[in-house]
């Protein structure tokens, strides 16, 4: 599911499940958290294999969830995304292809988000009775503002790379996202760590995450999930 490659300055973490568009299972969430937080390198680069960045939560997993298990799954994803957000390394998301639902939430948890011209982004959960519950209801408004966050979340529409850049979902559209990770890693590692901490938003994360997980669980309790 994950491939990890290390060099002196950058750890490359590849979501490697292309047949499932790199969808994340519960175990993969834990592996992803460990791959990012265990890095000794000043920069971690996260990207997806194949033609997608990440399709979000594994739908076979979600189909088996009821209310209590749904809340536990939401909390598990939140722990991974929070750990990525809090990682000592600077975490760069390189989006090439589709980022959907939890894939958008993964990108949002990273310090820097860049994409190729082939990238697309969407929060489609609302169309089948759910929503991203891995911290996205907090991070998306922080990244793009309340108006764009509401539009993306409530419509479920797909936006292209240039629109994502215009609204602040990514900072750059580039041919080679990994080169951005190398560019960042060329700087002083101590300064990178200090800056990443200072730039992180100060929010009441626990309250937001708890409310998000409870709402996700209520949707699953009211009606079984069907994609």
Radius of gyration: 16 Å
What is the end-to-end distance? 23 Å
The CATH topology is given as: 2-enoyl-CoA Hydratase, Chain A, domain 1
Spatial strand arrangement across the major sheet: 1-2-3-5-7-10
Using the 3D structure, state the CATH architecture.
Answer: Alpha-Beta Complex
Nearest-integer average pLDDT: 91
Tally of domains: 1
- The computed structural class is alpha/beta
Instruction: Specify the CATH homologous superfamily.
Output: 2-enoyl-CoA Hydratase, Chain A, domain 1
Task: Compute the number of strand runs.
Answer: 10
Our count of helices gives 10
Runs with pLDDT <50, length 5+?
none
Organism: Halobacterium hubeiense
Keywords: Lyase
Enzyme class: lyase
Pfam families: ECH_1
Description of the structure:
The chain is an alpha/beta fold and 227 residues long. It has a single domain, classed as 2-enoyl-CoA Hydratase, Chain A, domain 1. The chain is 48% helix and 18% strand. The chain has ten helices and ten strands. The protein has a six-stranded mixed sheet, with helices on both faces. Helix 4 (102-109) crosses helix 5 (136-144). The radius of gyration is 16 Å and the shape is globular. The model has no long low-confidence stretch (mean pLDDT 91).
